[in-house]
Amino acid sequence: MLISIITPFYCGNSYMAGFYQMVEKAAKEFLAQGQERSVEVIIVNDSPWERVELPENESHSFRLIVIDNKKNQRDSSIPRKWAGKGRRRICSVFRPGR
Fold this sequence. Notes:
By secondary structure, this protein is of the alpha/beta class. The protein contains one helix and three strands, in the order E-H-E-E. The protein has one helix at residues 16-31, and strands at residues 2-9, 38-45, 63-68. The protein has a three-stranded parallel β-sheet, with helices on one face.
């Protein structure tokens, strides 16, 4: 079973460390539940002038994909290129402070 976590990114580097830790904890808990499970995290960068800064030198238990939009799309919560790929989606947007 593949779980995809898709989250938009807009000028959010100050939140990446907390997001990364939260996803790592959830991925480890999910993977511990059984075999043939995998987790992928898709970060859609909707601030093309800013590079997504990921924690350095840390191993993680999930596959990480960063999609850089060349232009601000205003609604990048679920990228169109991922829709219809047979993926089961459970969408939750990480919003610090809420």
